[in-house]
Amino acid sequence: MKKDLDRLMQERNIDVAVVRGVVKGNSTMFYVVNGAKISHALVIKKRGEEPVLLCGTMEREEAEESGLKVVDTSKYNYRTMLEDAGGDRVKAAVTYHKTIFDEFGVTGRVAFYGLTSTGPNWVLLKALEEAIPGLTVAGEFSDDIFLTARATKGPEEVERIKEAGKLTCEVVRQTVDFMKSHELKGDTLVKADGSPLTIGDCKSEIRLALAKRKLIEEVDTIFAIGRDAGIPHSRGNDPDPIQVGKTIVFDIFPQEQGGGYFFDMTRTFVLGEASKEILDAYAQLEEAFDTVYAKLKGGEWGGQYQTMMCDVFEKFGHETIRQNPQVRNGYVHSLGHGVGLDVHEKPTLSDFPGVTDVLEPGSVFTFEPGLYYPDKGGFGMRIEDVCYVTESNEIVNLTNFPRDLVVEL
Fold first, then answer.
1. Does the pLDDT at position 116 exceed 90?
2. Architecture category of domain 151-407 in CATH
3. Cα 278 versus chain centre, distance
């Protein structure tokens, strides 16, 4: 949570955190400006002090919505700095930042964050370190202070994720009803004109349902049938017809409009009747889900649950990623990941070396085992719920949607 930032800065010997860049698509910036509807900004967070938000005149009122101290950057007159530098943008940028850093006492070990291009960022940070005595650029390679703080959510954040989840479940229900509303001709659902109902048609319905609920797709929703369902991140092929007897993996991970919080859930459906092979595999998937889910507990290392899941699937005779890192048929991925301002963030339920993430109170994460047989059976299946760890280390499931495999027509 944000209250952890000063502690994290102390532990990592960071005197000042500077966040730069655009706001849209820049989850760290969105986080520090509290979702204020501005285009780009510079935020200075000194250890032990409240952040300061610097932005242009045109967005001064939107910036006030952040609740932070706001400074209008027009007073620094970047145009004059650029003229004095003879048009050299690097020199002007150094003067601009040095002027601001001098005013706000930015010195010592200064870490930079946010969404900026690697090349220009490297040039600027190198030039700043050379130009400003007493300033040392500090870098964090992974799990930086903001990602670590965001790994646990406060009550308001959890409520927003819950609301996104409620609306997402409505979209899934609407999509299932949409498919059921079509006539069956042979083994294919057809539209009023007699042409096949397709993956693309269903995705159009999904997008319409999301828009009505003020949710957006950052990345194309996964809606894949048959063999494509056996490729975990196959988005599905728009022209493919919706046919009975084939698994449909529906993985939907919408975001609040304006770059807010995500939800992430998956259900697997078979229209009409499912084969014995699919029914047996799904029964094993549900048993594996329930067995390991029952052992989830806050305050514990998340990676152990991936190990448990591999144990269960291997007992059933499925190959796992633990046995073979290149596995394509069986259980082929990690068990879950954090959800928040990014659809994938801390904590992770992975047992990779070096992963030490704990399911702390305030953690919001997915729990998503799956089985995939694109080559041997031409099917795939996954169940994914979003969970929350309470202050008493209890696990609460935020995904209120049934797991029924077969959709009767």
1. no
2. Alpha-Beta Complex (3.90)
3. 30
Over the range 46-58, which residues count as b (16 or more CB within 10 Å of their CB) and which as e? bbeeebbbbbeee
* 169 within 8 A of 400, measured Cβ to Cβ: yes
Query: CA dihedral defined by 11, 14, 18, 23, rounded to 10 degrees?
Result: -20
Q: Where are the beta strands (DSSP E) in 130-231?
A: 135-138, 183-185, 188-190, 215-216, 222-225
Q: Is 199 exposed, middle or buried (0-12, 13-18, 19+ CB in 10 A)?
A: buried
Cα–Cα distance measured from residue 261 to residue 277, given in angstroms and rounded to the nearest whole number? 38
pLDDT digits (tens, 9 = 90+) for 296-336: 999 999 999 999 999 999 999 999 999 999 999 999 999 99
User: What are 363-392's pLDDT values in tens digits?
Assistant: 999 999 999 999 988 999 999 999 999 999
Query: CB neighbours (10 Å) of residue 25?
Result: 12
User: In the 8-state DSSP scheme, what is residue 142?
Assistant: S
CB contact at 8 A, 230 and 379? yes
Picking from 101, 104, 154, the residue whose alpha carbon sits closest to that of residue 131 is 101
Number of residues that this document lists for the chain: 409
| Separation between Cα atoms, residue 254 and residue 261, nearest integer Å | 8
pTM, entire model: 0.93
Is 2-148 in CATH node 3.40.350.10? yes
Amino acid at 348: T
In eight-state DSSP terms, residue 182 is: S
- Domain boundaries of the chain, sorted by first residue: 2-148, 151-407
Question: Residue 115 has what pLDDT?
Answer: 85
Q: Is 408 exposed, middle or buried (0-12, 13-18, 19+ CB in 10 A)?
A: exposed
Percent of the chain with pLDDT over 70: 100
- Tokens coding 307: 């190990």
DSSP assignments along 30-86, one per residue: HHHTTT---SEEEEEEETTS--EEEE-GGGHHHHHTT-SEEEEGGGG-HHHHHHHTT
- Burial-class residue 11 by CB neighbours within 10 Å (0-12, 13-18, 19+): exposed
Cα–Cα distance measured from residue 185 to residue 187, given in angstroms and rounded to the nearest whole number? 6
Alpha helix segments (H runs only) across 181-316: 199-212, 276-293, 303-315
